[in-house]
Design a protein that fits this description.
heterodimer; A: 538 residues; mainly alpha; two-stranded antiparallel sheet; 22 helices; B: 141 residues; mainly beta; 4-stranded antiparallel sheet; 42% strand
Chain lengths: 538, 141
């Protein structure tokens, strides 16, 4: 019965012959473990496609929903964290494997005539792999994604001649928003995967057409692809998969805070495989910037593509290819050095922005965020929403991670709840834009762990922060890293100044700080007491 | 082995229900005093529904029968056959589903038609003269 089915299949489709042709292809006797990397790279692509499709089943590709849906995947969907982990770490693994494959082919000189086109298709696949990294980076819509993409689109916008059009094409004109997101998502899932499949097809076809490159001086009779090489490929793929699976299961893929375009404290960094490019840019300033962002990387790609035409000598043993080895070593050293420099110059505060961090108590909030608590109390939001202990349950729990929204969405919702959430019973909030900003800024800092500590901030500090915010003190001063540095930072003020000094300084700044550009402030006695107490508590 | 290691998490990912999120257990659905005694009344109320990664506030309805000031039954508004919205047929004194003519008594029992089980009920209780509705479950008759 099985034989009959197979015969039928063979007669109608020729699948058996195709498989036999594939397995019993002649390969050089010198083939070995180094040829495994190409198969592992294809395997990585298949894992990315598979896990990407699974993620898409629960992912909403719009800025308003992307973060929440991804959070839903990793916190609520069964196995979601593992699937996302496989996709996230799989991306890094694919970059590593593709680069190792390229380095191996380069070192063995396998790009030489007649395999120039095979090499060039491979370089195109490397660029496509980087393309995935670039476009996929935006999709979680956290701060890392947002700010990383801001930088990437700005670089694209500076391309000589075509920058304007490129920026428009990427939807990065003006600001990163829904259009950028849609374009990046379309590139990531609609353009790049078919392009990858096509390029892999061309690449593998060419490998088959010209045969696997034999080692120099390999005159031994050829062997078959099956079983020896198939076994090696299987082992290679298995090892890669075990590493990937362990990484996905044991190391949580990062998901920072919801993208916040107003978060000036965030330090953008690209994914690790772009860090060298990021660092390279630092060496070029002003009109020379384009050299670091476009000309050098462009030349590097051109040099890669042209490698088979530059090095046209006969195939030689690896040990004799000292120049190629030297070039590769230099490239590796250069990339590793730039990457290490970029890592070394990344401040450690970056970690504080992770979801598990966030401010632990009110003293870590910016004055704007603290003032937001004041508006939360003033508008009696707790009569419907939970924030910390107590608080009613009529509206959604604002400490929950389930209903995270962007600041822009929240402000629209405050102004016109019905428009953003049809049918809601929430009344519009009558506050100024600056006050609504403060309210949104506070809500963005809330998480289930800190809600109680933040919401129980003392009333004097909250009122002091409201006075601070109302008078625009942040236009000159910094508190907790927020605000400008025209005047001195106000952190730790109590260690430097007394209450009398601070109060006297508000009344007549020049009397106590000759040459100060700060104008005098006429506060009511209560305002003066509150803002002074607040500043001295910092 | 690799196919297994990938397809098992994939099956879990697609087929197991997401971790349950804390939902508001009881929602207020108006005063009991204005409900007529032993006559079903369609009550519209508002509740939060967990919809994937969103919590949406939506309108919901219940067919409520007041048996006494303390005892109220609230039926989920879908027919137990294929989910059509049924209505109260005052002339015959029973609930009628317009899709496939299932007929239910005022107590929710199936009187005729293809409905496989009695009408589903909200958990219901009365507190301070207000009707509070909880999750929907199958009737325990």
């Amino acid at each position: 019965m099985i034989r009959l089915t197979l015969e039928w299949l063979e007669h109608r489709t020729g699948v058996e012959t195709a498989v036999k042709n594939f397995l019993y292809e002649d390969i050089p006797a010198s083939s070995g473990w180094r040829q495994v990397l190409g198969s592992v790279a294809i395997f990585c692509f298949l894992v990315q496609a598979f896990t990407g499709i699974l993620l898409a089943f629960n992912y909403a590709p719009t800025p308003g929903e992307a973060y929440n849906s991804l959070k839903y995947i990793v916190t609520e969907v069964a196995g979601g964290r593992l699937i996302r982990g496989l996709h996230h770490w799989g991306a890094s693994m694919m970059v590593v494997v593709v680069m190792l494959h390229l380095a191996q082919v380069f070192l063995w000189g396998a790009y030489k005539k007649p395999r120039e086109a095979t090499w060039m298709a491979g370089v195109a696949l490397l660029l496509v792999t980087f393309g995935y990294g670039l476009t996929g980076y935006l999709l979680p819509w956290d701060n890392r994604a947002y700010w990383g993409t801001v930088v990437a689109t700005q670089i694209a916008a500076k391309s000589p001649g075509i920058g304007h059009y490129l920026s428009r094409l990427l939807g990065g004109e003006g600001a990163i928003g829904v259009v950028t997101f849609a374009r990046f998502f379309a590139l990531h899932v609609l353009i790049l995967p078919p392009l990858t499949a096509l390029l892999i097809g061309v690449h593998v076809y060419l490998v088959r057409k010209h045969g696997v490159t034999p080692e120099a001086g390999d005159t031994a009779p050829k062997k078959k692809f099956y079983p020896e090489q198939v076994f090696r490929d299987t082992i290679g793929i298995f090892v890669a998969f075990v590493i990937l699976f362990l990484a996905a299961a044991l190391v949580e893929a990062p998901l920072g805070k919801l993208a916040d375009p107003t978060d000036t404290s965030f330090i953008p960094r690209p994914e690790w495989y772009f860090l060298w490019l990021f660092q390279l840019l630092k060496f070029f300033e002003g009109p020379l910037e384009v050299a670091g962002s476009h000309i050098l990387p462009g030349l590097a790609v051109l040099a890669l593509l042209a490698t088979p035409f530059i090095d046209r000598g006969a195939l030689r043993r690896v040990r004799q290819r000292t120049l190629a080895g030297g070039v590769l070593a230099l490239a590796v050293l250069g990339l590793a050095g730039l990457t290490a420099a970029a890592i070394a110059t990344t401040p450690k505060t970056q970690e504080a922005a992770s979801e598990t961090g966030g401010p632990r108590d009110w003293q870590q909030l910016s004055p704007e965020e603290l003032a937001g608590i004041g508006y939360f109390r003033k508008e009696n939001c707790a009569s419907c929403h939970a924030a910390g202990e107590g608080g009613a349950r009529i509206g959604p729990d604002l400490t929950g991670t389930a209903i995270r929204k962007s600041a822009a969405w929240m402000i629209q919702h405050f102004k016109s709840p019905q428009r953003m959430m049809p049918g809601t019973s929430m009344p519009p909030i009558q506050l100024s834009d600056a006050q609504l900003n403060a309210l949104a800024a506070f809500l963005l800092k809330l998480n289930p762990r800190n809600a109680q500590a933040l919401y129980s901030a003392p009333q004097y500090a909250v009122e002091g922060a409201m006075v601070y915010q109302h008078n625009g003190c942040a236009a000159c001063h910094q508190v907790n890293g927020a605000g400008m540095k025209i005047g001195p930072s106000l952190d730790g003020l109590a260690q430097r100044r007394s209450r009398e000094w601070v109060e006297g300084h508000f009344a007549d700044p020049r009397k106590l700080s000759p040459g100060s550009v700060m104008p005098p402030y006429r506060f009511t006695p209560r305002e003066l007491e509150r803002i002074t107490s607040y500043l001295l508590a910092l | 082995m690799i196919a297994g290691a990938l397809s098992l998490p994939a099956a879990i990912y697609l087929l197991l229900p997401p971790r349950a999120r804390r939902e508001d257990q009881w929602v207020e659905a108006g005063g009991v005093a204005q409900l007529p005694l032993r006559t079903p009344e369609e009550v519209v109320f508002r509740r939060n529904r967990v919809d994937g990664w969103k919590i949406s506030s939506e309108k919901a309805t219940a067919w409520v029968v007041k048996l006494s000031e303390k005892d109220v039954v609230a039926f989920a508004p879908q027919c137990t056959h294929l989910g059509c919205a049924y209505h109260w047929d005052a002339r015959h004194g029973n609930f009628l589903c317009p899709c496939h003519n299932s007929v239910f008594s005022m107590e929710g029992k199936v009187l005729a038609g293809p409905a496989p089980r009695p009408l589903d009920r909200y958990q219901a209780k009365v507190a301070d003269g207000k009707l509070l509705l909880g999750p929907v479950g199958e009737a325990q008759l």
